[in-house]
Amino acid sequence: MNLAQQQLHIRLLKTCNIKWLGLRKDDLQILPQPAFIKLKPRDLQIARSLMSSKTLQETYRAELTAMVEKGHRVEIEALYFRGFNFLSQYIATKIVKSDYI
């Protein structure tokens, strides 16, 4: 492992308590088709790089795998389609129910 890789690895270890609060594969059925964004080559590269990490939690890997298999991503702002207040309610509910990974 070269110095740059070691530094990246150290930074990744420092961020091991990240919570995925946003949209997950089980949430996607509430969105219309126009909300889905085709993955760009750079998106795929990042996803595959993350998936190859030995330190990546299995729940994150499952989310990334689903995203790559479907070939699209969704921004959390797409929840505005459900109404102006829906996004804040969605986030609050996720936090209260500890529905994050």
From TrEMBL:
Residues 10-95 form the Topoisomerase 6 subunit A/Spo11 TOPRIM domain. GO terms for biological process: meiotic DNA double-strand break formation; meiotic DNA double-strand break processing; reciprocal meiotic recombination. GO terms for cellular component: nuclear chromosome. GO terms for molecular function: DNA binding; DNA topoisomerase type II (double strand cut, ATP-hydrolyzing) activity. SUPFAM superfamilies: DNA topoisomerase IV, alpha subunit. PANTHER family: MEIOTIC RECOMBINATION PROTEIN SPO11. This is Topoisomerase 6 subunit A/Spo11 TOPRIM domain-containing protein. It comes from Dendrobium chrysotoxum.
